[in-house]
């Protein structure tokens, strides 16, 4: 599966977790792609933590406003019914559990739903941005990422080895291979995607998986 | 009526070495462009800068950084700036990375007379190390202290001569909280209108928070120009 197909498959599956009427925050990078697949049958309002509720499409050349960006610092537009506000208000709506779904990228997720996605010690110093606030505020936290790292090592682990973004915060993991729910008893394998077997998933996941009601061959 | 400076140089005249500054903006949006340039020219050193980001290599706070005027940076995301990363890794600059919502609330609280608050953000991570943890309703929270600054440098679209401010779109971001948390707040604005010309119901920052005004044209550099390919789906 090519890189583009992997990202598209993940984004399409993540979109199914968004319900009509939801307020949603999409993280920078692959999560932003989810917006491309939001069904026309759903009214979804996207929150941007820099102070916008109701992100619209990217602007045409004549509609570019340098004062209007999303959290990825890309020029955007706003939809009819949108609202602008300051950063304290923005994080009040995030921390205050008003945002229904946050879809974020991940470097590692642990068996208990710990998330690491902001820092590799000694390598890059970028900062956590709004991720640490988001993981505690949104009602549903979905992590979308490649199932394994570039060197083939597991990213879904017993314990995260990288500095954490949040402890016990993840509800669902979606990769190009599987969908996994974080439950009080552990990680439950729910769906295995076309081209992979349950055994493939177990073999490429360091954390223990609960395997009971798995739907296989999901496309 | 608030003092209206004749130049950015005059506006920053009282900012001395070692000052703590809050600087508004998210990325390059809503930054006080001319005040930053005037600080570069003045060459004040040993600054503590509180701002969400640290500009890019050739614009915004990145210029102060390049000129080695910043001793300590408090922000949430500095990934757009290679020089920043170099100075941190070499130990030339001190950095305090703070979750973005915590940073916004620290500044809001500072301006509102609240010395500290509990937040869930950062619990169980290195951000909470050495800080008080308390449980409320079965969930853990970390105690975070508020922030104030000697000067706040903010950017607004419009001001009246009283110092009331209105921001444009997402250029609002950290500016209103900083205006309140600065002991002396200088607002760089695109337009100054007569007192009474702004609708009182539309004011974002009431004049009580503003100590001086500067009218200045803005370049408004775009960090990532992204254009529509014609679809109607939102842009994340």
TrEMBL record, chain A:
Domain of life here?
Answer: Bacteria
UniProt xrefs under PROSITE patterns: COA_TRANSF_2
NCBIfam families given in the database record: pcaJ_scoB_fam
**Pfam families of this UniProt entry?**
CoA_trans (PF01144)
Kindly provide the name given to this protein in its UniProt entry: Probable succinyl-CoA:3-ketoacid coenzyme A transferase subunit B
Q: Which family does it belong to?
A: Belongs to the 3-oxoacid CoA-transferase subunit B family.
Annotated Gene Ontology MF terms?
A: CoA-transferase activity
Per the record, the gene is scoB_1
**Keywords linked to the UniProt accession:** Transferase
* Summary of subunit composition and partner proteins: Heterodimer of a subunit A and a subunit B.
- Does the UniProt entry include the keyword Transferase? yes
Please tell me the species this chain comes from: Filibacter tadaridae
TrEMBL record, chain B:
Write down what this protein is called.
Putative succinyl-CoA:3-ketoacid coenzyme A transferase subunit A
Q: Which family does it belong to?
A: Belongs to the 3-oxoacid CoA-transferase subunit A family.
Q: Fetch the Gene3D superfamilies from UniProt.
A: Glutaconate Coenzyme A-transferase
What PANTHER family does UniProt report for this protein, alphabetically?
A: ACETATE COA-TRANSFERASE SUBUNIT ALPHA (PTHR13707:SF60), KETOACID-COENZYME A TRANSFERASE (PTHR13707)
- Cite the entry's keywords alphabetically: Transferase
Q: Which NCBIfam families is this protein grouped with?
A: pcaI_scoA_fam
Query: Under which main EC class is this enzyme filed?
Result: transferase
Single GO term (MF): succinyl-CoA:3-oxo-acid CoA-transferase activity
Originating organism: Filibacter tadaridae
Corresponding gene? scoA_1
Q: What is its EC number?
A: 2.8.3.5
């Amino acid at each position: 599966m090519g890189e583009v197909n992997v990202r598209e498959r993940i984004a399409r599956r993540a979109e199914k977790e968004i319900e009509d009427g939801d307020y949603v925050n999409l993280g920078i990078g692959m999560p932003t792609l989810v917006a491309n697949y939001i069904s026309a049958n759903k009214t979804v309002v996207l929150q941007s933590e820099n102070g916008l509720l109701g992100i619209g499409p990217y602007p045409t050349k004549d509609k570019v406003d340098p004062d209007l960006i999303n959290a990825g610092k890309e020029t955007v537009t706003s939809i009819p019914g949108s609202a602008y506000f300051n950063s304290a208000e923005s994080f009040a709506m995030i921390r205050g559990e008003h945002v229904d779904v946050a879809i974020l990228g991940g470097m590692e997720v642990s068996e208990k739903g710990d998330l690491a996605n902001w820092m590799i010690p000694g390598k890059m110093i970028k900062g956590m941005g709004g991720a640490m606030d988001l993981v505690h505020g949104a009602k549903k936290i979905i992590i979308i990422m490649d199932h394994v790292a570039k060197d083939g090592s597991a990213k879904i682990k017993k314990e995260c080895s990288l500095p954490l973004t949040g402890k016990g915060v993840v509800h669902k993991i979606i990769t190009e291979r599987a969908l996994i729910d974080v439950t009080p008893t552990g990680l439950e394998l729910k769906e295995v995607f076309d081209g992979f077997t349950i055994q493939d998933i177990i073999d490429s996941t360091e954390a223990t998986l609960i395997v009971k009601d798995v739907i296989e061959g999901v496309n | 009526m608030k003092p209206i400076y004749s130049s950015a140089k005059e506006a920053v005249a009282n900012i001395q070495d070692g000052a703590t500054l809050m600087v508004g903006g998210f990325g390059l949006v809503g930054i006080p462009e001319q005040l930053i340039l005037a600080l570069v020219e003045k060459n004040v050193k040993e600054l503590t800068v509180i701002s969400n980001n640290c500009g890019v290599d050739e614009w915004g706070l990145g210029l102060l950084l390049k000129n080695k005027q910043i001793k300590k940076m408090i922000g949430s995301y500095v990934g757009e700036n290679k020089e920043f990363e170099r100075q941190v890794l070499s130990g030339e600059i001190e950095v305090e990375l703070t979750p973005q919502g915590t940073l916004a609330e620290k500044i809001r609280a500072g301006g509102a007379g609240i010395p500290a608050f509990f937040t869930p953000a950062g619990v169980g991570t290195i951000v909470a190390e050495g800080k008080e943890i308390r449980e409320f309703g079965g969930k853990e929270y970390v105690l975070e202290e508020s922030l104030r600054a000697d000067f706040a440098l903010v950017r607004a679209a419009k001001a009246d001569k009283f110092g009331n401010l209105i921001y444009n779109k997402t250029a609002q971001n950290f500016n209103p909280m900083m205006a309140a948390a600065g002991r002396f707040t200088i607002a760089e604005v695109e337009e100054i209108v007569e007192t009474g010309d702004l609708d009182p119901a539309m004011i974002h920052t009431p004049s009580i928070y503003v100590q001086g005004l500067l009218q200045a044209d803005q370049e408004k550099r775009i960090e990532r120009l992204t254009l529509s390919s014609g679809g109607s789906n939102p842009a994340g």
